[in-house]
């Protein structure tokens, strides 16, 4: 479906469906199983993405990445946001919105 346009029947807005811009990381990362719940903000001329990342080893975590262009988020340096030094508590955070 790369580049296919889809029009909403109710709003009349035309959307462009393209390839995913953000996918799970390689095995061993804090978000290696899946990524979901994106919250995207444009601030100071950068795109900022907060998301839930699932790892087979660590459970759900909140991740953060930024990029100059929206389609550059997948190549940006990812950061796991740490909320506690207690490993058991740190595994319980997810869904940034």
Any low-confidence stretches, pLDDT <50, length ≥5? none
Rg, alpha carbons: 16 Å
Q: Profile the largest sheet.
A: 4 strands, antiparallel
Q: Roughly how much helix do the residues carry, as a percent range?
A: under 10%
Widest sheet, order of strands: 3-4-5-6
Q: β content, as a range? A: 35-45%
Count of helical stretches: 1
Span between termini: 28 Å
Class inferred from helices and paired strands? mainly beta
**Number of beta strands:** 6
Mean pLDDT over the full residue set? 83
Taken in chain order, the helices and strands follow as: EEEEEEH
What global shape is seen? elongated
Overall description:
By secondary structure, this protein is mainly beta. The protein has one helix and six strands, in the order E-E-E-E-E-E-H. It has one helix spanning 87-90, and strands at 4-7, 14-17, 34-43, 46-55, 59-67, 79-81. It has a four-stranded antiparallel sheet with strand order 3-4-5-6, with no helix packed on it. A two-stranded antiparallel ribbon has the order 1-2. The two termini are 28 Å apart.
Note the main attributes of this structure:
single chain; 97 residues; mainly beta; 4-stranded antiparallel beta sheet; two-stranded antiparallel sheet; 6 strands; elongated
List the helices and strands and how they pair.
Blueprint: E1 4-7, E2 14-17, E3 34-43, E4 46-55, E5 59-67, E6 79-81, H1 87-90
Antiparallel strand pairs: 1-2, 3-4, 4-5, 5-6
């Amino acid at each position: 479906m790369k580049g296919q346009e889809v029009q909403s029947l109710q709003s009349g807005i035309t959307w462009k469906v393209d390839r995913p811009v953000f996918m799970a990381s390689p095995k061993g990362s804090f978000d290696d199983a899946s990524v979901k719940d994106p919250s995207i903000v444009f601030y100071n001329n950068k795109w900022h993405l907060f998301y839930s990342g699932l790892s087979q080893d660590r459970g759900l975590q909140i991740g953060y990445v930024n990029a100059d262009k929206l389609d550059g988020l997948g190549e940006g340096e990812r950061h796991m946001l740490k909320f506690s030094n207690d490993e058991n508590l740190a595994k319980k955070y997810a869904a940034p919105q």
